[in-house]
Design a protein that fits this description.
By secondary structure, this protein is of the alpha+beta class. It has 4 helices and 5 strands, in the order αβαβααβββ.
């Protein structure tokens, strides 16, 4: 068996797939009900909610960019208060626009 040093192995890489589900106006803006966003992190760190949002924006036009600032997010069913929250692999991120009514 041959040992590989950390130096020769190169930087750590992390790849995470996140299922993003869009609701109501966010769904209309994205044009899809849900999609898988795949993120590669060369530093090996888990991606954040902000990273997923940025990756989703790169896949869509300006309609989604106009809606996202007003949206709230659920990560695996739990409200996200900090967009710097790390996302584990195979997570689900729900995008919820403001809802009217009562």
């Amino acid at each position: 068996m041959t040992a590989v040093s950390e130096q020769s192995a190169g930087p750590a890489r992390s790849s995470v797939s996140v299922q993003v589900r869009y609701f109501a106006g966010a769904r209309a803006a994205a044009g899809v009900r849900e999609e898988t966003v795949r993120l590669n992190r060369p530093d090996g760190a888990a991606p954040t909610v902000s990273d997923v949002i940025a990756a989703a924006l790169n896949q869509h036009d300006e309609k989604l960019a106009k809606v996202l600032p007003a949206c709230s997010f659920l990560l695996d069913g739990v409200a996200v208060r900090d967009r710097g929250t790390r996302i584990p692999g195979d997570a689900t991120l729900d995008v919820l626009p403001p809802f009217a009514g009562g």
